Predict the structure.
Amino acid sequence: MASKTNPFAFLQQVRAETSKVTWPSRRETTISTLMVFVMVSFAAAFFFGADQLLGWVMSLILNVGA
């Protein structure tokens, strides 16, 4: 079982570890966010098109016997 650390020491450790993190710049964050939106848009368009195409093909198959 882990030993208990008092809250003050814990917060000091958290602050020390947080200072070691390399944070992205505002520019890097903006570019990454825009790239995520672009890729989500492409994926949404692709899956919409694939769904429409498969729906059309299935309607052709199912209407053959009608």
Summary: Residues 26-62 form the longest helix (37 residues). Residues 28-66 form one domain.
